[in-house]
Amino acid sequence: MYRVPFDKGELAFELPPGWKGTVVESRTVPPIQDVPAAVSAALANPTNSRPLRDMAGPGDKVCIVFTDITRSSPDHLLVPPVLSDLEAAGVHDEDITLLCGIGLHRPSTLEEKIIKLGQAVVDRYRVIDNEPLNPEVLVSLGTTESGIPLSVHKAAYEADLLIATGIVEPHQYAGYSGGRKTLAVGAAGEAMIAYTHGPHMIDDPATRLGRIEGNPFHEAISEAAKRAGLRFIVNVVQDDQKRVAYVRAGEPEAAFGELVAFAKTLYEVPVPQQYDVAVAGVGFPKDANLYQASRAASYLFFAPTPVVRPGGVFIVPAPCGEGAGEGVGEQRFLKAMQDAPDVQSILDDAREHGYPPGQQRAFVMAKVLEANDVIVVGAEDPTLVASAKFLAAPTMEAAFTMIGQTLGNELDVLVVPHALLTLPIVQEQ
Question: 284 exposed, middle or buried (CB, 10 Å; 0-12, 13-18, 19+)?
């Protein structure tokens, strides 16, 4: 019996006779038992930086950028120790702003802010969302040598001390998430997000999962964070059960380097070959909408070597209770997928005309669908899934029947219960 996450529970299934299954998961390490204590220790002994409480004082403005509900960063454990140190340093409550880095996702609700930060923090401090479409709250940071327009929210730019929290895990564009990305994308304007998620960036072979060096996306967000004045990060690495396994704080580049080094030992797992089928587990909160859930297939596709052979199939179990997603980006993704006559048209149009932010997921998934089918299992609205050029199946058994009709009855299947937190590295060349 195989099991993968589904919503807040699990989905159990067996493979058809003649199918050979291989399960791959990230390495298991003992989780940190007292995360707030570990965070406090990291703040007191940061990497390449003074302790946090020595970096600000009375009268200083501080901005803490944190991730929205689509990211499983345990900000309710990270932010209170930061606030405690700022209080000890004499920073006034009214001089602290907590900025939710929504990127181009929909604004966060009050309930989500409370989930992310805790009731006490939301009641005591100013908590706001990024507004990527509102030029009045954005500051231009100029352009990079390659022409990328950089911008950031005023609350971040005008702070005397700018801090970002986050999680370091495999990321399709940045190589690894976290570090400077929470600020540089989460608190950016539409133009910057559009350029860094454009076809020229995604088509670049150096924009890959697990790759930092020479990655143009990573270079862009590093430059944006530097110009915005990011001075301190507090990040964690989590295991596949979202338990904190590693904490580091300090100067953004140095601390991020230590986090990535640990993350690679946890997430990157060798597999002997490409497979006919990959079952890509997602789980809550990422499987709440099609935009986020589809990442499971694209992560495995954009591994250093695609995990599924050309002509093979990805299966993504996801209820997608929010449909494609409610944000601007999610709706652009859905419209692009629905309106195009075929997958090739999505690719051709994007390469010729570009696309607005959010629609990059359509371009990414078109690249996946050009080589492989993607079956979404258990979606509450299978008609919507099908309209977006994915296949829909009510159960895993139904998905297997669909695959068997085209690929045969003796297949190699890779089961990746946590596809967003496991990076299979194909050994066979």
Answer: middle
Name the residue with tokens 């900025």.
99
Domain boundary among 267, 298, 326: 267
Mean pLDDT, rounded, of the chain = 95
Question: 333 near 394, Cβ under 8 Å?
Answer: no
> pLDDT: is 359 or 260 the higher one?
260
* Final residue in a domain of this structure, among 239, 267, 295: 267
Query: In a 3-state reduction of DSSP, which class is residue 220?
Result: helix
Collect all residues with Cβ–Cβ distance below 8 Å to 205 and sequence separation of at least 6.
Answer: none
- CA–CA distance from 283 to each of 51, 101, 173, 188, 289 (Å)? 36, 22, 21, 27, 11
Instruction: Tell me how far apart the alpha carbons of residues 97 and 186 are, in angstroms, rounded to a whole number.
Output: 15
Do 333 and 362 form a contact (C-beta atoms < 8 A)?
yes
Looking at residue 429, its pLDDT comes to 59
* 308: β partners: 275
Domain carrying residue 379: 2-26+272-426
Domains held by the chain: number: 2
pLDDT digits (tens, 9 = 90+) for 16-62: 999 999 999 989 899 999 999 999 999 999 999 999 999 999 999 99
Q: CATH number for the domain including 46?
A: 3.40.50.11440
The answer on 232 and 257 residing in a single domain is yes
pLDDT in tens, 207-229: 889 989 999 999 999 999 999 99
Contacts of 9 (CB under 8 A, 6+ apart): none
Show the tokens assigned to 238: 């989590």
Cα–Cα separations (whole angstroms), residue 249 to 49, 84, 91, 107: 9, 15, 19, 27
Beta bridge pairs of residue 138: 153
What ranges in 143-236 are assigned the alpha helix state H?
Answer: 154-157, 181-184, 190-196, 199-203, 216-228
Beta bridge mates, 313:
277, 373
How far apart CA 223 and CA 229 sit, in angstroms, is 10
Say which amino acid occupies 237. Answer: V
pTM given for the model: 0.83
Minimal CA–CA distance to 183: which of 134, 256, 267? Answer: 256
For residue 370, which of 305, 329, 312 has the smallest C-alpha distance? 312
Torsion, Cα of 73, 77, 80, 86 (10° steps): -70
Specify whether 72 is located in the same domain as 183: yes
Residue 151: CA count within 13 A, CB half-sphere: 23
CA 165/CA 234 separation, integer angstroms:
5
